[in-house]
Amino acid sequence: MRNHVPDCWNAAARALRHHRRLPPLAAASPQPDPVSYHPSRPAALLCLALSMSLVGSYVALSKPLVAAIPVLLLAWLRFGIGGAAMLHWLRKPRGEQPMTRQTRWLLFLESFLGNFLFSICMLFGVSLTSAVSAGVIMAAIPAVVALLSWIFLRERIGPRTWAAVACAATGIALLATADAGSPTQGRPANSLPGNLLVLGAVLCEAAYAVIGKKLTGTLAPKRITAIINLWGFALVTPFGVYAALRFDFATVPGGIWLLLLFYSLAASIWTVWLWMTGLKAVPASQAGVFTVMLPVSAALVGVFVLGESLTGVQFVAFAIALAGVLLATLPSRATGAGAPASR
């Protein structure tokens, strides 16, 4: 019996040493992968709505910016200020898989279409056509997003989503045609080049939504935001430097610089991060309905900030458009809350 006592003590000591080593091992375990994080459905829907509302707000508030600063220089300053504010987001997080060639290509396309071309097409297009024509064309964004997500992501588009798309398009088209009797002064109404540019912006915005859904499966939202902003800065730098060398910065009022700071942070950081975060829990076709908030928020900024009037017809248009958002966001009994459509 005595011969077995040391063996028992040795076994107990080895077990104790093994137990004591467990906490350091657990402490050294990797942190949760940011790519695998999925927000709750209500949080994701709120992120999508806030993102598009901010886009509409800064599109409306960019009018004084475009009047004071050339478009290409404005885009360059926007990407530069936004990039400086999120340099630390460029760092590769722990647990992220190496980017494939397809992922790198999608990141470039996301920036080229959703940042660079969208800004150029929208800013120049609105200056070449009437506001009514631009609003009617922008009403097609939810339908284009749903169509592209069906083609490229193989998302099943249910009747409720199509009904939400129809509500969104109807509401914004009604909003846009409410002022058809009073054409905008100083702009060539129904200008074909301007309409084509706005249509190009619609296609860019739809592609941005669909490609973003693809990217959120492999990269964290902060990382996507930083990389596509860096690409945007690189793409517009030659044009921005040329415009900067020919521009007198002393003519820009102090208030415009503050507005530029808000525009840069909203366009480069807040809206992109909110959109990518929301896409992690919502199918692209359903998220596309939230693009209805873009022209709606732009109109509200025009009323409450720029002093424009809001008619009864416009109130009805808002109600129809928001009914589309409600149809898209109510949980379905057929699928679990937040579950993406089958592909």
Report on the structure:
There is one protein chain. With 343 residues, this protein is mostly helical. The chain has one domain. 71% of the residues lie in helices and 0% in strands. The chain is built from 13 helices and no strands. The radius of gyration is 25 Å and the shape is globular.
Termini Cα gap: 68 Å
Question: Could you say which overall geometry the principal axes of the C-alpha atoms support?
Answer: globular
Rg of Cα set? 25 Å
N-to-C order of helices and strands = HHHHHHHHHHHHH
Average pLDDT taken over every residue = 77
The computed structural class is mainly alpha
Strand % is under 5%
Overall structural domain count: 1
How many DSSP H or I helices? 13
Oligomeric state = single chain
Residues in helices, as a percent range: over 70%
Low-confidence stretches: 15-33, 334-343
How many strand segments? 0
Q: What's the main sheet like? A: none
